[in-house]
Amino acid sequence: MNVLAGTRRLARLAFRRERTIAPWWLLAVVGLGLAMVSYIDRNMPTPSVLATYAETINDNAFFRALGGGDSVIADRGFMTAWRSGGFLYLLTAIAALLAVVRYTRADEDMGRTELLRSGLVSRFAALTSALLVAATVSLVAGALTAVAQIGVGLAPVGSVAYGAAITAAGLVFGSIAAVAAQIGRNARTARAITLFALAIAYLLRYAGDASGQAWMTYISPMGWIHAVQPYRYDRWWMLAVIAGIVAVLLAIAYLLSNRRDLGEGLLPERRGRATAPHLRGPAGLSWRLHRGLFTKWAIGTGVFAIGAAGVGTIVPDIDALPPDSFGLLQQGFGGDGSAGDYVNFFLWAGILLFAHVISIYPVLMIARLRAEERSGRAELAAGTPMTRVRWAAGQLYVTALGTAALFALTGLVLGFCYGLFTAELPGPLGRVIVAALSCVPAAWLIAAVGFLAYALTPRYAVPISWAVWAWTAVLGKIAGPLYNVWGGTPLEPFHYLPNTLAGEPFSPSTILTTVVLAAVLVCAGLTALRHRDFGR
Protein backbone atom coordinates (compact mmCIF):
# COMPACT_ATOMS: atom_id res chain seq x y z
CA MET A 1 0.00 0.00 0.00
CA ASN A 2 1.16 3.54 -0.77
CA VAL A 3 2.41 5.27 2.38
CA LEU A 4 -0.04 8.14 1.72
CA ALA A 5 -2.98 6.03 0.49
CA GLY A 6 -6.32 7.59 1.43
CA THR A 7 -4.82 10.98 2.26
CA ARG A 8 -6.85 12.80 -0.39
CA ARG A 9 -10.17 11.50 0.90
CA LEU A 10 -9.31 12.11 4.52
CA ALA A 11 -8.19 15.64 3.66
CA ARG A 12 -11.51 16.31 1.92
CA LEU A 13 -13.35 15.04 4.98
CA ALA A 14 -11.21 17.17 7.31
CA PHE A 15 -11.71 20.30 5.20
CA ARG A 16 -15.44 19.67 5.21
CA ARG A 17 -15.47 19.46 9.00
CA GLU A 18 -13.21 22.51 9.28
CA ARG A 19 -15.50 24.73 7.17
CA THR A 20 -17.57 25.65 10.24
CA ILE A 21 -14.51 26.31 12.43
CA ALA A 22 -11.79 27.93 10.34
CA PRO A 23 -13.82 30.97 9.16
CA TRP A 24 -14.11 32.21 12.74
CA TRP A 25 -10.37 32.00 13.27
CA LEU A 26 -9.75 33.78 9.98
CA LEU A 27 -12.26 36.49 10.86
CA ALA A 28 -10.57 37.01 14.23
CA VAL A 29 -7.07 37.27 12.73
CA VAL A 30 -7.93 39.58 9.83
CA GLY A 31 -10.43 41.64 11.85
CA LEU A 32 -8.01 42.27 14.69
CA GLY A 33 -5.30 43.30 12.24
CA LEU A 34 -7.59 45.84 10.56
CA ALA A 35 -8.93 47.06 13.89
CA MET A 36 -5.40 47.80 15.03
CA VAL A 37 -4.68 49.82 11.88
CA SER A 38 -7.80 51.87 12.58
CA TYR A 39 -6.76 52.30 16.21
CA ILE A 40 -3.30 53.55 15.21
CA ASP A 41 -4.77 55.98 12.66
CA ARG A 42 -7.18 57.46 15.21
CA ASN A 43 -4.83 57.77 18.17
CA MET A 44 -1.50 58.38 16.42
CA PRO A 45 -2.63 60.55 13.49
CA THR A 46 0.57 62.58 12.95
CA PRO A 47 4.29 61.70 12.83
CA SER A 48 4.95 63.75 15.95
CA VAL A 49 2.30 61.92 17.98
CA LEU A 50 3.57 58.60 16.66
CA ALA A 51 7.11 59.57 17.65
CA THR A 52 5.93 60.44 21.17
CA TYR A 53 4.34 57.01 21.55
CA ALA A 54 7.48 55.31 20.22
CA GLU A 55 9.70 57.22 22.63
CA THR A 56 7.47 56.36 25.59
CA ILE A 57 7.46 52.67 24.65
CA ASN A 58 11.23 52.53 24.18
CA ASP A 59 11.75 53.98 27.65
CA ASN A 60 10.01 51.01 29.31
CA ALA A 61 11.44 47.52 28.76
CA PHE A 62 8.41 45.71 30.19
CA PHE A 63 6.01 47.46 27.84
CA ARG A 64 8.30 47.32 24.80
CA ALA A 65 8.63 43.55 25.18
CA LEU A 66 4.91 43.06 24.59
CA GLY A 67 5.34 43.50 20.86
CA GLY A 68 8.86 42.11 20.68
CA GLY A 69 12.18 43.52 19.54
CA ASP A 70 14.76 45.75 21.17
CA SER A 71 13.07 49.00 20.12
CA VAL A 72 10.12 50.45 18.21
CA ILE A 73 10.10 53.06 15.46
CA ALA A 74 7.63 55.77 14.56
CA ASP A 75 6.19 54.05 11.50
CA ARG A 76 2.49 53.37 10.87
CA GLY A 77 3.01 49.86 9.54
CA PHE A 78 5.58 48.86 12.13
CA MET A 79 3.47 50.18 15.00
CA THR A 80 0.45 48.25 13.69
CA ALA A 81 2.40 45.00 13.50
CA TRP A 82 4.07 45.65 16.85
CA ARG A 83 0.72 46.21 18.58
CA SER A 84 -1.22 43.35 16.96
CA GLY A 85 1.45 40.87 15.87
CA GLY A 86 1.68 38.96 19.13
CA PHE A 87 -2.08 38.40 19.18
CA LEU A 88 -2.27 37.35 15.53
CA TYR A 89 0.64 34.94 15.91
CA LEU A 90 -1.00 33.39 18.96
CA LEU A 91 -4.42 33.09 17.29
CA THR A 92 -2.98 31.40 14.20
CA ALA A 93 -0.81 29.08 16.29
CA ILE A 94 -3.78 28.00 18.41
CA ALA A 95 -5.99 27.46 15.35
CA ALA A 96 -3.32 25.28 13.72
CA LEU A 97 -2.46 23.19 16.76
CA LEU A 98 -6.10 22.51 17.59
CA ALA A 99 -6.75 21.43 14.00
CA VAL A 100 -3.84 18.97 14.03
CA VAL A 101 -4.91 17.39 17.31
CA ARG A 102 -8.58 17.38 16.24
CA TYR A 103 -7.92 15.30 13.13
CA THR A 104 -5.32 12.99 14.64
CA ARG A 105 -5.56 12.00 18.32
CA ALA A 106 -9.12 13.25 18.86
CA ASP A 107 -10.33 11.09 15.97
CA GLU A 108 -8.35 8.16 17.36
CA ASP A 109 -9.95 8.62 20.78
CA MET A 110 -13.40 8.62 19.17
CA GLY A 111 -12.64 5.44 17.17
CA ARG A 112 -12.98 7.15 13.79
CA THR A 113 -9.39 6.53 12.70
CA GLU A 114 -9.59 2.81 13.50
CA LEU A 115 -12.73 2.53 11.41
CA LEU A 116 -11.13 4.37 8.49
CA ARG A 117 -7.93 2.34 8.74
CA SER A 118 -9.94 -0.82 8.03
CA GLY A 119 -10.12 0.41 4.42
CA LEU A 120 -7.43 1.55 1.99
CA VAL A 121 -6.01 4.16 4.32
CA SER A 122 -2.34 4.24 5.24
CA ARG A 123 -0.82 4.85 8.66
CA PHE A 124 0.26 8.39 7.69
CA ALA A 125 -2.96 9.50 5.98
CA ALA A 126 -4.63 11.02 9.06
CA LEU A 127 -1.51 12.92 10.13
CA THR A 128 -0.89 14.21 6.61
CA SER A 129 -4.49 15.38 6.13
CA ALA A 130 -4.44 17.14 9.51
CA LEU A 131 -1.23 18.95 8.61
CA LEU A 132 -2.72 19.98 5.26
CA VAL A 133 -5.70 21.52 7.03
CA ALA A 134 -3.53 23.37 9.56
CA ALA A 135 -1.18 24.61 6.83
CA THR A 136 -4.06 25.81 4.68
CA VAL A 137 -5.71 27.70 7.54
CA SER A 138 -2.37 29.31 8.43
CA LEU A 139 -1.63 30.22 4.81
CA VAL A 140 -5.07 31.73 4.23
CA ALA A 141 -4.83 33.69 7.49
CA GLY A 142 -1.48 35.13 6.47
CA ALA A 143 -2.54 35.86 2.90
CA LEU A 144 -5.79 37.56 3.86
CA THR A 145 -4.01 39.67 6.47
CA ALA A 146 -1.38 40.75 3.94
CA VAL A 147 -4.04 41.69 1.37
CA ALA A 148 -6.06 43.57 3.99
CA GLN A 149 -3.00 45.50 5.23
CA ILE A 150 -2.04 46.46 1.67
CA GLY A 151 -5.64 47.52 1.09
CA VAL A 152 -5.48 50.07 3.92
CA GLY A 153 -2.31 51.60 2.57
CA LEU A 154 0.53 49.81 4.37
CA ALA A 155 3.76 48.94 2.57
CA PRO A 156 3.29 45.88 0.31
CA VAL A 157 6.65 44.28 1.15
CA GLY A 158 6.12 44.67 4.88
CA SER A 159 2.53 43.42 4.59
CA VAL A 160 3.65 40.28 2.78
CA ALA A 161 6.35 39.70 5.42
CA TYR A 162 3.72 40.18 8.13
CA GLY A 163 1.41 37.67 6.48
CA ALA A 164 4.29 35.23 6.07
CA ALA A 165 5.14 35.53 9.78
CA ILE A 166 1.51 34.80 10.68
CA THR A 167 1.58 31.72 8.46
CA ALA A 168 4.89 30.66 10.01
CA ALA A 169 3.35 30.76 13.50
CA GLY A 170 0.67 28.30 12.42
CA LEU A 171 3.17 26.01 10.71
CA VAL A 172 5.54 25.90 13.68
CA PHE A 173 2.94 25.09 16.30
CA GLY A 174 1.01 22.81 13.97
CA SER A 175 4.26 20.82 13.64
CA ILE A 176 4.77 20.82 17.41
CA ALA A 177 1.19 19.56 17.78
CA ALA A 178 1.96 16.76 15.29
CA VAL A 179 4.80 15.60 17.55
CA ALA A 180 2.68 15.99 20.69
CA ALA A 181 -0.09 13.92 19.09
CA GLN A 182 2.33 10.98 18.92
CA ILE A 183 3.58 11.46 22.48
CA GLY A 184 0.37 12.16 24.41
CA ARG A 185 -1.85 9.43 25.83
CA ASN A 186 -4.94 11.08 24.34
CA ALA A 187 -6.11 14.26 22.62
CA ARG A 188 -6.37 16.16 25.89
CA THR A 189 -2.75 15.40 26.76
CA ALA A 190 -1.61 16.34 23.25
CA ARG A 191 -3.40 19.70 23.48
CA ALA A 192 -1.97 20.34 26.93
CA ILE A 193 1.59 19.60 25.75
CA THR A 194 1.28 21.91 22.74
CA LEU A 195 -0.43 24.75 24.61
CA PHE A 196 2.20 24.47 27.35
CA ALA A 197 4.91 24.72 24.68
CA LEU A 198 3.15 27.79 23.27
CA ALA A 199 2.98 29.42 26.71
CA ILE A 200 6.65 28.70 27.45
CA ALA A 201 7.62 30.01 24.01
CA TYR A 202 5.78 33.27 24.62
CA LEU A 203 7.22 33.71 28.11
CA LEU A 204 10.77 33.04 26.92
CA ARG A 205 10.35 35.52 24.09
CA TYR A 206 8.91 38.15 26.43
CA ALA A 207 11.59 37.61 29.08
CA GLY A 208 14.35 37.78 26.48
CA ASP A 209 13.07 41.01 24.93
CA ALA A 210 12.41 42.62 28.33
CA SER A 211 15.78 41.71 29.82
CA GLY A 212 17.91 42.12 26.70
CA GLN A 213 19.02 38.46 26.90
CA ALA A 214 18.83 37.62 23.19
CA TRP A 215 19.53 33.92 23.74
CA MET A 216 16.16 33.55 25.49
CA THR A 217 14.41 35.08 22.50
CA TYR A 218 16.18 32.91 19.95
CA ILE A 219 15.48 29.59 21.68
CA SER A 220 11.77 30.41 21.58
CA PRO A 221 9.59 29.59 18.53
CA MET A 222 7.69 32.82 19.17
CA GLY A 223 11.04 34.61 19.21
CA TRP A 224 11.82 33.27 15.74
CA ILE A 225 8.53 34.61 14.42
CA HIS A 226 8.86 38.03 16.06
CA ALA A 227 12.40 38.26 14.67
CA VAL A 228 10.97 38.68 11.16
CA GLN A 229 10.21 42.31 12.16
CA PRO A 230 7.82 43.22 9.29
CA TYR A 231 7.72 46.84 8.10
CA ARG A 232 11.20 47.36 9.53
CA TYR A 233 13.79 44.70 8.70
CA ASP A 234 11.61 42.18 6.79
CA ARG A 235 13.99 39.32 7.59
CA TRP A 236 13.09 36.77 4.93
CA TRP A 237 16.02 34.58 5.92
CA MET A 238 14.37 34.03 9.30
CA LEU A 239 11.40 32.48 7.51
CA ALA A 240 13.81 30.07 5.80
CA VAL A 241 15.17 29.07 9.22
CA ILE A 242 11.62 28.49 10.47
CA ALA A 243 10.87 26.35 7.40
CA GLY A 244 13.88 24.17 8.18
CA ILE A 245 12.79 23.74 11.80
CA VAL A 246 9.27 22.83 10.67
CA ALA A 247 10.72 20.18 8.34
CA VAL A 248 12.68 18.64 11.23
CA LEU A 249 9.61 18.59 13.48
CA LEU A 250 7.51 16.94 10.78
CA ALA A 251 10.17 14.28 10.22
CA ILE A 252 10.12 13.51 13.94
CA ALA A 253 6.31 13.36 13.95
CA TYR A 254 6.21 10.85 11.07
CA LEU A 255 8.97 8.78 12.63
CA LEU A 256 7.12 8.58 15.95
CA SER A 257 3.82 7.86 14.19
CA ASN A 258 5.42 4.83 12.56
CA ARG A 259 6.58 3.51 15.93
CA ARG A 260 3.47 3.76 18.09
CA ASP A 261 0.28 1.72 18.28
CA LEU A 262 -3.00 3.21 17.10
CA GLY A 263 -4.81 4.92 19.98
CA GLU A 264 -1.76 4.85 22.21
CA GLY A 265 0.89 7.46 22.97
CA LEU A 266 4.56 7.12 23.70
CA LEU A 267 3.98 8.37 27.25
CA PRO A 268 3.02 5.40 29.43
CA GLU A 269 -0.31 5.32 31.22
CA ARG A 270 -0.13 6.16 34.90
CA ARG A 271 -1.42 3.61 37.36
CA GLY A 272 -4.38 4.85 39.35
CA ARG A 273 -4.88 4.56 43.10
CA ALA A 274 -6.49 1.43 44.52
CA THR A 275 -9.11 3.46 46.40
CA ALA A 276 -10.59 6.92 45.96
CA PRO A 277 -12.89 7.80 48.86
CA HIS A 278 -12.97 11.46 47.86
CA LEU A 279 -14.84 10.57 44.65
CA ARG A 280 -18.04 9.54 46.44
CA GLY A 281 -19.84 12.85 45.92
CA PRO A 282 -20.60 14.93 42.82
CA ALA A 283 -18.32 17.79 43.89
CA GLY A 284 -15.41 15.41 44.56
CA LEU A 285 -15.87 13.73 41.19
CA SER A 286 -16.04 17.08 39.41
CA TRP A 287 -12.92 18.36 41.15
CA ARG A 288 -11.03 15.17 40.24
CA LEU A 289 -11.96 15.64 36.58
CA HIS A 290 -11.19 19.34 36.42
CA ARG A 291 -8.31 19.91 38.82
CA GLY A 292 -5.77 19.63 36.01
CA LEU A 293 -7.55 22.32 33.99
CA PHE A 294 -7.81 24.57 37.03
CA THR A 295 -4.13 24.12 37.87
CA LYS A 296 -3.10 25.14 34.35
CA TRP A 297 -5.38 28.18 34.46
CA ALA A 298 -4.06 29.18 37.88
CA ILE A 299 -0.45 28.98 36.70
CA GLY A 300 -1.20 30.90 33.50
CA THR A 301 -3.20 33.56 35.32
CA GLY A 302 -0.48 34.08 37.90
CA VAL A 303 2.29 34.35 35.31
CA PHE A 304 0.42 36.84 33.15
CA ALA A 305 -0.61 38.86 36.20
CA ILE A 306 3.09 39.26 37.02
CA GLY A 307 3.68 40.39 33.45
CA ALA A 308 0.80 42.85 33.64
CA ALA A 309 2.21 44.31 36.84
CA GLY A 310 5.56 44.74 35.09
CA VAL A 311 3.92 46.48 32.13
CA GLY A 312 2.26 48.79 34.65
CA THR A 313 5.59 50.40 35.36
CA ILE A 314 4.94 52.53 32.27
CA VAL A 315 2.18 54.39 34.13
CA PRO A 316 4.48 57.20 35.39
CA ASP A 317 5.36 57.98 31.76
CA ILE A 318 1.75 58.49 30.65
CA ASP A 319 2.03 62.25 31.13
CA ALA A 320 4.07 62.36 27.92
CA LEU A 321 1.30 60.76 25.84
CA PRO A 322 -1.27 62.80 23.88
CA PRO A 323 -4.05 63.66 26.33
CA ASP A 324 -7.05 63.51 23.99
CA SER A 325 -7.29 59.82 23.16
CA PHE A 326 -5.92 58.64 26.49
CA GLY A 327 -8.23 60.86 28.49
CA LEU A 328 -11.21 59.51 26.56
CA LEU A 329 -10.09 55.94 27.16
CA GLN A 330 -9.45 56.67 30.82
CA GLN A 331 -12.90 58.16 31.35
CA GLY A 332 -14.39 55.07 29.71
CA PHE A 333 -13.05 53.02 32.62
CA GLY A 334 -14.55 55.27 35.22
CA GLY A 335 -11.68 57.71 35.69
CA ASP A 336 -11.95 61.48 35.73
CA GLY A 337 -9.19 62.03 33.17
CA SER A 338 -6.79 63.61 35.65
CA ALA A 339 -3.10 62.76 35.81
CA GLY A 340 -3.38 61.45 39.35
CA ASP A 341 -5.90 58.86 38.23
CA TYR A 342 -3.52 57.02 35.88
CA VAL A 343 -2.66 54.21 38.28
CA ASN A 344 -6.29 53.50 39.13
CA PHE A 345 -7.15 53.49 35.43
CA PHE A 346 -4.40 51.00 34.63
CA LEU A 347 -5.25 48.62 37.47
CA TRP A 348 -8.97 48.57 36.67
CA ALA A 349 -8.32 48.15 32.94
CA GLY A 350 -5.99 45.27 33.74
CA ILE A 351 -8.57 43.62 35.98
CA LEU A 352 -11.24 43.88 33.27
CA LEU A 353 -8.86 42.39 30.72
CA PHE A 354 -8.22 39.44 33.02
CA ALA A 355 -11.96 39.20 33.71
CA HIS A 356 -12.75 38.65 30.05
CA VAL A 357 -10.04 36.01 29.77
CA ILE A 358 -10.99 34.20 32.99
CA SER A 359 -14.59 34.09 31.77
CA ILE A 360 -13.40 31.51 29.24
CA TYR A 361 -12.83 29.08 32.12
CA PRO A 362 -16.53 28.49 32.91
CA VAL A 363 -17.23 28.27 29.16
CA LEU A 364 -14.74 25.40 28.96
CA MET A 365 -16.41 23.75 31.94
CA ILE A 366 -19.79 23.89 30.18
CA ALA A 367 -18.15 22.32 27.12
CA ARG A 368 -16.90 19.50 29.35
CA LEU A 369 -20.42 18.89 30.63
CA ARG A 370 -21.48 18.21 27.07
CA ALA A 371 -18.41 16.07 26.42
CA GLU A 372 -19.07 13.95 29.52
CA GLU A 373 -22.65 13.39 28.41
CA ARG A 374 -21.75 12.51 24.81
CA SER A 375 -19.06 10.05 25.93
CA GLY A 376 -21.55 8.17 28.12
CA ARG A 377 -19.63 8.78 31.34
CA ALA A 378 -22.33 11.08 32.69
CA GLU A 379 -24.95 8.41 32.04
CA LEU A 380 -22.92 5.91 34.04
CA ALA A 381 -22.75 8.37 36.93
CA ALA A 382 -26.53 8.95 36.67
CA GLY A 383 -27.04 5.20 37.05
CA THR A 384 -25.81 5.46 40.64
CA PRO A 385 -27.58 7.27 43.52
CA MET A 386 -26.02 10.42 42.06
CA THR A 387 -28.85 11.83 39.94
CA ARG A 388 -28.25 13.93 36.86
CA VAL A 389 -29.22 17.06 38.78
CA ARG A 390 -26.72 16.30 41.56
CA TRP A 391 -24.08 15.51 38.94
CA ALA A 392 -24.64 18.84 37.17
CA ALA A 393 -24.84 20.72 40.46
CA GLY A 394 -21.46 19.31 41.51
CA GLN A 395 -19.95 20.47 38.23
CA LEU A 396 -21.43 23.95 38.66
CA TYR A 397 -20.24 24.15 42.27
CA VAL A 398 -16.63 23.43 41.26
CA THR A 399 -16.93 25.82 38.32
CA ALA A 400 -18.18 28.65 40.53
CA LEU A 401 -15.48 28.16 43.16
CA GLY A 402 -12.75 27.75 40.52
CA THR A 403 -13.80 30.96 38.76
CA ALA A 404 -13.82 32.88 42.04
CA ALA A 405 -10.41 31.47 42.97
CA LEU A 406 -8.92 32.61 39.64
CA PHE A 407 -10.19 36.14 40.21
CA ALA A 408 -8.82 36.15 43.76
CA LEU A 409 -5.46 34.94 42.46
CA THR A 410 -5.46 37.67 39.81
CA GLY A 411 -6.11 40.38 42.37
CA LEU A 412 -3.52 39.02 44.78
CA VAL A 413 -0.71 38.64 42.23
CA LEU A 414 -1.45 41.84 40.30
CA GLY A 415 -1.81 43.98 43.41
CA PHE A 416 1.21 42.52 45.20
CA CYS A 417 3.57 42.59 42.20
CA TYR A 418 2.54 46.09 41.13
CA GLY A 419 3.07 47.33 44.67
CA LEU A 420 6.42 45.53 44.81
CA PHE A 421 7.64 46.92 41.47
CA THR A 422 6.63 50.47 42.41
CA ALA A 423 7.69 50.21 46.09
CA GLU A 424 4.17 51.03 47.26
CA LEU A 425 3.28 47.90 49.24
CA PRO A 426 0.84 47.27 50.77
CA GLY A 427 -0.98 50.26 49.22
CA PRO A 428 -2.83 48.83 46.21
CA LEU A 429 -3.02 45.19 47.34
CA GLY A 430 -6.33 45.17 49.22
CA ARG A 431 -8.08 47.48 46.76
CA VAL A 432 -7.05 45.38 43.78
CA ILE A 433 -8.21 42.12 45.39
CA VAL A 434 -11.64 43.61 46.18
CA ALA A 435 -11.95 45.02 42.65
CA ALA A 436 -11.04 41.65 41.12
CA LEU A 437 -13.56 39.78 43.27
CA SER A 438 -16.30 42.21 42.22
CA CYS A 439 -16.04 40.72 38.71
CA VAL A 440 -16.93 37.20 39.86
CA PRO A 441 -20.76 37.51 39.58
CA ALA A 442 -20.51 38.74 35.97
CA ALA A 443 -18.42 35.67 35.05
CA TRP A 444 -20.94 33.47 36.87
CA LEU A 445 -23.70 34.99 34.76
CA ILE A 446 -21.88 34.03 31.55
CA ALA A 447 -21.56 30.48 32.88
CA ALA A 448 -25.24 30.41 33.85
CA VAL A 449 -26.34 31.36 30.35
CA GLY A 450 -24.13 28.61 28.93
CA PHE A 451 -25.53 26.05 31.38
CA LEU A 452 -29.11 26.98 30.52
CA ALA A 453 -28.26 26.47 26.83
CA TYR A 454 -26.75 23.08 27.71
CA ALA A 455 -29.88 22.04 29.58
CA LEU A 456 -32.28 23.19 26.85
CA THR A 457 -30.38 22.56 23.62
CA PRO A 458 -27.33 20.39 24.40
CA ARG A 459 -26.37 20.09 20.74
CA TYR A 460 -25.83 23.84 20.46
CA ALA A 461 -24.67 24.52 24.01
CA VAL A 462 -20.97 24.87 23.19
CA PRO A 463 -21.37 27.34 20.28
CA ILE A 464 -23.93 29.32 22.27
CA SER A 465 -21.59 29.53 25.27
CA TRP A 466 -18.73 30.74 23.09
CA ALA A 467 -21.02 33.20 21.34
CA VAL A 468 -22.08 34.67 24.71
CA TRP A 469 -18.46 35.05 25.75
CA ALA A 470 -17.50 36.62 22.41
CA TRP A 471 -20.47 39.01 22.65
CA THR A 472 -19.32 40.07 26.12
CA ALA A 473 -15.70 40.54 25.04
CA VAL A 474 -16.42 42.40 21.79
CA LEU A 475 -18.92 44.78 23.36
CA GLY A 476 -16.84 45.41 26.48
CA LYS A 477 -14.57 48.25 27.53
CA ILE A 478 -11.39 46.43 26.51
CA ALA A 479 -12.23 45.78 22.83
CA GLY A 480 -14.50 48.79 22.36
CA PRO A 481 -11.74 51.37 21.68
CA LEU A 482 -10.50 49.25 18.76
CA TYR A 483 -13.63 50.22 16.82
CA ASN A 484 -14.10 53.67 18.40
CA VAL A 485 -16.56 52.68 21.14
CA TRP A 486 -15.20 54.17 24.36
CA GLY A 487 -16.47 52.89 27.69
CA GLY A 488 -18.06 49.72 26.29
CA THR A 489 -21.78 49.13 25.93
CA PRO A 490 -24.54 48.30 28.43
CA LEU A 491 -25.13 44.96 26.70
CA GLU A 492 -22.51 43.02 28.67
CA PRO A 493 -22.39 42.25 32.42
CA PHE A 494 -18.99 43.78 33.24
CA HIS A 495 -20.24 47.18 32.06
CA TYR A 496 -22.15 47.77 35.29
CA LEU A 497 -19.28 47.15 37.68
CA PRO A 498 -18.13 50.33 39.44
CA ASN A 499 -14.45 51.25 39.32
CA THR A 500 -13.92 51.31 43.07
CA LEU A 501 -10.20 51.83 42.49
CA ALA A 502 -10.95 55.25 41.03
CA GLY A 503 -13.28 56.17 43.88
CA GLU A 504 -16.64 55.16 42.42
CA PRO A 505 -19.02 54.03 45.18
CA PHE A 506 -19.45 50.31 45.64
CA SER A 507 -22.92 49.18 44.52
CA PRO A 508 -24.16 46.06 46.35
CA SER A 509 -27.36 46.14 44.30
CA THR A 510 -25.43 45.57 41.06
CA ILE A 511 -23.57 42.57 42.48
CA LEU A 512 -26.73 41.16 44.09
CA THR A 513 -28.79 41.56 40.92
CA THR A 514 -26.16 39.73 38.88
CA VAL A 515 -25.92 36.90 41.42
CA VAL A 516 -29.71 36.51 41.59
CA LEU A 517 -30.02 36.48 37.80
CA ALA A 518 -27.29 33.85 37.53
CA ALA A 519 -29.01 31.75 40.23
CA VAL A 520 -32.35 31.95 38.42
CA LEU A 521 -30.76 30.79 35.16
CA VAL A 522 -29.00 27.91 36.93
CA CYS A 523 -32.22 26.79 38.63
CA ALA A 524 -34.05 26.94 35.30
CA GLY A 525 -31.27 24.90 33.73
CA LEU A 526 -31.37 22.23 36.45
CA THR A 527 -35.16 21.95 36.05
CA ALA A 528 -34.84 21.60 32.28
CA LEU A 529 -32.06 19.03 32.65
CA ARG A 530 -34.26 16.91 34.89
CA HIS A 531 -36.99 16.66 32.24
CA ARG A 532 -35.05 16.24 28.99
CA ASP A 533 -33.62 13.05 27.55
CA PHE A 534 -30.10 12.44 28.77
CA GLY A 535 -27.38 11.66 26.27
CA ARG A 536 -29.09 13.12 23.20
Automatic annotation (TrEMBL):
<protein>
    <submittedName>
        <fullName>Polyketide antibiotic transporter</fullName>
    </submittedName>
</protein>
